[in-house]
TrEMBL record, chains A, B:
Coiled-coil zones: 439-470
Protein known as: Type 2 DNA topoisomerase 6 subunit B
Reaction(s) catalysed (UniProt annotation): ATP-dependent breakage, passage and rejoining of double-stranded DNA
Keyword Cell division: no
Amino acid sequence: MAKRQQVAQQESFRSMTPSQFFYEYREVAGFGSPSRALYQTVRELVENALDATDVHGILPDITLVIEQIPEHPSYYRITVEDNGIGIQPQHVPYAFGQVLYSSKYKLRQARGRFGLGAKMAILYGQIKTGQPVEVYTSPIGSSKIYFFRIKIDIERNKPIVLAKGEYPNPSGWHGTRVSVVIEGDWPRARHRVHEYIRRTAIAAPYANITFIDPDGNITVYHRTIDKLPKQPREVKPHPQGVDIELLKQLIRKSKATTLLEFLIDAFQGVGRKTAEAFLDWAGFDKNLDPHKLDDRKLEKLARKLREYQRFRPPSADALSPFGPEIIEAGLRTILKPEFVAAVTRRPRAYEGHSFIVEVGIAYGGQIPPSSEPILLRYANKIPLLYDEKSDVAWKVVDPKNFDWRNYLVVFPAPVAVLTHIASTKVPYKGVGKESVADVPEIEQELRNALREAARKLREYLLQKKKEEEAKKRVITFMKYTPEIAKSLATILKDYSVDENSIREMLLTAMKKRLRIEDEKFAKLVEGLEVNIEE
Amino acid sequence: MAKRQQVAQQESFRSMTPSQFFYEYREVAGFGSPSRALYQTVRELVENALDATDVHGILPDITLVIEQIPEHPSYYRITVEDNGIGIQPQHVPYAFGQVLYSSKYKLRQARGRFGLGAKMAILYGQIKTGQPVEVYTSPIGSSKIYFFRIKIDIERNKPIVLAKGEYPNPSGWHGTRVSVVIEGDWPRARHRVHEYIRRTAIAAPYANITFIDPDGNITVYHRTIDKLPKQPREVKPHPQGVDIELLKQLIRKSKATTLLEFLIDAFQGVGRKTAEAFLDWAGFDKNLDPHKLDDRKLEKLARKLREYQRFRPPSADALSPFGPEIIEAGLRTILKPEFVAAVTRRPRAYEGHSFIVEVGIAYGGQIPPSSEPILLRYANKIPLLYDEKSDVAWKVVDPKNFDWRNYLVVFPAPVAVLTHIASTKVPYKGVGKESVADVPEIEQELRNALREAARKLREYLLQKKKEEEAKKRVITFMKYTPEIAKSLATILKDYSVDENSIREMLLTAMKKRLRIEDEKFAKLVEGLEVNIEE
């Protein structure tokens, strides 16, 4: 007993800063091995670069350079430069040197959300190679370019600025250039990094992306369209996504003196009428001061807001889907299929967050037949490459759950599916942003979108089948035509009808019979010579 | 341009506390939906209860009660009581009211690690139902029982103690009782919660576990053995798992004045000889003061420690595997198979963390045939129920990657595999602790363990096949014996040998021929009457 007592008293507790936590458990953020860390670093920096440009109405020009450090072959310098909005110099130390500090904690669609990604790359580089991050940045309209060299004080979660400087900016450059040195494994990461950049370029055809890799390969993805997609706007929270904590935060920020005003002021899509109807239904006096609600009342208000079924659905202003054209063009570029179809569904919501689901299907052509569909996942325009089988999109397209035969697809088949979930909050399963949780509303929408796209594929395959049958009949007919023509010519020789004319007549009769136009017929018999000569 | 400039200047940054972060992204910790949250709450509280007992040499008595709150049918109170070491009262507010505060940030095998789980349940309950956590605790040997009612100040990540009290403790009770009220979905969580408790009980046959569920069912898992497994001890870090940050921390804590002393003092398995050989190899003066190393030297020292191949492998003192007996007993209890085999591999290491892999195989009996193996995953004695397909264990047992036919298993087959990874750091893919990353060293050990266990299965199946063939031959023989005996009796009637004696002689000859012992023969012909009579 004495010994146990000692144990109990020795049991020591300690607290951790967020940077200590993510330092200890870096693998949950995608920094578990050198190859994965290299991939993840590229992702985080490129996604920040895109979030600094297209979200703010700027056509992106992005350069990614990965270099091997000659003295230490397992160390790599990764540099990403964008022409984005830049960062005000007073924010730079925190934006790069403090975990959980971000401009992205907002209700609008953005690639990043956790305020974690770039800092994880910096932290990982720092603990493995000892190298700080280097940042050059110039906010739009600034006459200066600012330079910083920063480390993270992990125990305190604070930036350490090792060096800083200012340079004149005569050319009016704006944007950010970030450089980190990490322990990496390029040979193992090569394939995924190239695939990631390729798929990113396909999802952002309005961007110029230049990628110089450690092997010296230069890959340039040129802008193919000059129009940016609709920019996502920041929106107010939706009442159905509310909990007690959010309610408290909103009340603290609000100057409203009555519940009625507060609801109209704090939430999206709530006008006077809706607010009055809700308060009446929920049993609240509309003139109550929201700042004076006690915990019980707050709990009730939050619960009633979640339960009320008559709020307007969440706004899609904060969302920016691809649209079917970009998806179809993307699929053609990646897969060179014989058929593509894409569907963009209307906005829906889960827990107060709006989302839009998009699905594209590609079939045949250069797609290799496989026992399962090839799946290309995107979330808020980010390609997702890891943990496919635990993603809600896989659950939906999996032949175990989706009856592909209804759509005339029998595996092994040459079929690929692209999925995109655009949302103010993509419900990732982890902070590494690799797979999306199976939220019922999203799963259902994915299934609906897949059905819609698969119906188009079905039509195409039906049509194709019909044509193949027609072709078969033509072939059979053509095979016997010379014989028949010859016989008829012999029979009719007194009437001086020559074989060729008879052949022509027979073909015309057949075309009429099969209702095939001349053009189509020419296509059908194209390349059939060998068969016909048999 | 003016508008863009405005945008750039408006871009606002903010920082988050860990509790705000995990509040916003609670789904990454397993609190994404009411049903999942209910399951996750049970897990976190039960795992804490076990970590407070068996890890400290106490046979666990654990009670779990889930009650529906009558006024709000979607609210549930979850209470877990243990007979563990208890918590010193001065730690209680932080242990339950501050995210990332824990006694578990140590190098020894424990179920919890993140210092996050119970707090997530408390936080989730608080934001949905407004209810605080209630804690009763008494450290071993304490004359008092302490009571606390606590909320989390999410914006500051600090505990708010709403109430506290002390009671006399005449019976000498020790342990902790925690109660939270959360929004849940029992009908959807029921199956997983029961399965989780069942599998936990199987993994801890030395525990009494009582579970009262909201339907009023009382399930009691009685202790079946009185012996605790070997207790894991806290160990020093292994030099191969070192990075610059850890090195700095160790130096800061160390009183050593030379590099030589520091290495011996700070790392496991490093004696004077090893330390000298390493420093010589790495090119460091052994008399250098570790506190005076600059960043370049630190980077070099950390890198060389990682690269040196001649350190002793990490110690397994910190680990506590199941052992083959517990695994085999567990598989028999869960699956009622006809055959089981289990393997506990020797300790190995990845990145300075020791680990032990165990694999059990069960075959036939009441296991239903399936196109894939049934997989039961454990990590540090926790059953893992979600995200199976993204777990390294699935990757290893997947018939696409493992050639089961080599071991005479052809799918569909009635086969189940249990895997256990015990480690000072299980490389979970997420903070929800649901799937393990495919660290190459662990993957390889799992594969070796599976092969080893599968070879035993193969032997069994070979033996079974042999016996079936023997049985077939016996049947064939037995079928004709009466006929032959009759004929022989007729032929030999002058020698007055009766039919029965001839039959006996024939049987004896056959047994000799087939080399079957009497006992085995009896077993083979058991129930064959019908066939023989044909």
